[in-house]
Structures are given as C-alpha cells and as structure tokens.
Amino acid sequence: MSLTNPIAALFGKSPFKPLQQHMRIVMECVGEVPALFQALIDDDQEQLGELKNRIFIKEGEADAVRADMCDHLPRSLLLAVDRQDLLELLAMQDAIADTAQDIAGLLVERRMEVPAGMAEPLMRLVARCVDTCALAHSIVEELDQLLETGFRGREAERVQAMVVELGHMESDTDVMGMDLARALFAEEDNHKPVSVMFWYQLIQWVGTLADYAERVGETLRLLIARR
C-alpha cells in the first residue's frame, strides 16, 4: 500500500487547498484572541493561561502545515499561478498566527492590568481586527472559484470588492489603535513607564493582525491584476 503525503494529495486537487487549510487554522488561532483579552479584563489568570495554550497549539499546527506545504509545493504550479504568489500569501497568513501567539505570550508572561477607561475601546479594537482577519479568510476561500473563472469576470470583480472592503476595515483599525494609544498616553503619569511601553506594544500588535490580513487581500488583488 502506497503512502501519500496529505499536503501533496491536496495539491493534486487544487493548488489552493493547502493554503485554505492553513488559513482555517490561522483563524482558529485568531478566534481565541477576543476571549483572551476578556480574561485579561476579568483578571482571570487561569482562563488566560488556558487560552494562551490553545493559541500556541494552533499556531504550531499552522507552522506544521506551512512547512509541509513549502516542502511539497510543486514547480508545475507555475502553469496555473505564480509559485511566489502562493508563498507570499502563505507568509502573510502565517504572520497573523505568529502575532496572535506574540500577544498571548505577552499577556501571560507579564502581568498586565488594563488602564482605566481602556477596556471597552480595547475590546472594540480587538473585535474589529479579528473581523478583518475573518474577511481575509473569506477571500482566501474564494481562490478555487477564481481559478475556475480564470481570475476574470464577476468572481474576480466580487473578490476585488471584498479586498476594497478589507482595506476600509484595516483603516478603521488604524484609527481605533491611534485613539487607544492617545488614551493610554493621557494616563501615562498614573502608570509605570515600563507598563505604558508594554501596553503600547500590545496595541501595536493587535493592529498588526489587521495589517497582515490586509496584505493577504493586497497580494490577491495583485494576483488578479496580473492575469
């Protein structure tokens, strides 16, 4: 009985199946982030630790799929879509999971206290960033349909519209992040400088989730434009 590598088998069905599989795991990872911040707000250290472990496990699963995909990426894909485009998409997706892991690690490794008045805008920012990642995921799920239509026609137009919306959502997160940073700096005299520094880094990382999601969309937009 011959043994077939699961990633190689997926490539036999579609050049995008492994990429989609990877993005689904990435979204499972990112999907834990809102609950992670809620546990922080509630000062539930046990729940915080459990969620951190889930995120780390999912990030590890995403890394495994990425490594296997890179090892079995057929050169013949050049006939359907540029190999480098697939690797670029894969890298952007993986960066989303890596950022979620960074956030979870910081929240557990350093005891963080949410500054007064920041809990509600923080959760709004987190939710918007996760929604941005979810839209990027939806776009990636359209890749098979794009391939069937030759990256042209109504499907391409629909995906391009989704990419435009993705850009608007990422812009929203930029504004929300800047507002949150201003609120943090307005209270900095009431907190240790190192705490302010870590909170600023955390706000930046949350926004980075949306940044990488937008890059996924932009990579796909360029892929369509070149067809």
Topology:
Layout: H1 6-13, H2 17-30, H3 33-41, H4 45-71, H5 83-109, H6 119-140, H7 143-148, H8 153-186, H9 193-225
Structure description:
This protein is mostly helical and 227 residues long. The protein has a single domain, classed as Methane Monooxygenase Hydroxylase, Chain G, domain 1. The protein is 79% helix and 0% strand. It has helices at residues 6-13, 17-30, 33-41, 45-71, 83-109, 119-140, 143-148, 153-186, 193-225. Helix 5 runs antiparallel to helix 9.
Structural class: mainly alpha
Integer-rounded radius of gyration = 19 Å
Q: What's the multimeric state?
A: single chain
The proportion of residues in beta strands is: under 5%
- What is the fourth-level CATH superfamily? Phosphate transport system protein phou homolog 2, domain 2
Which geometry do the CA atoms define?
globular
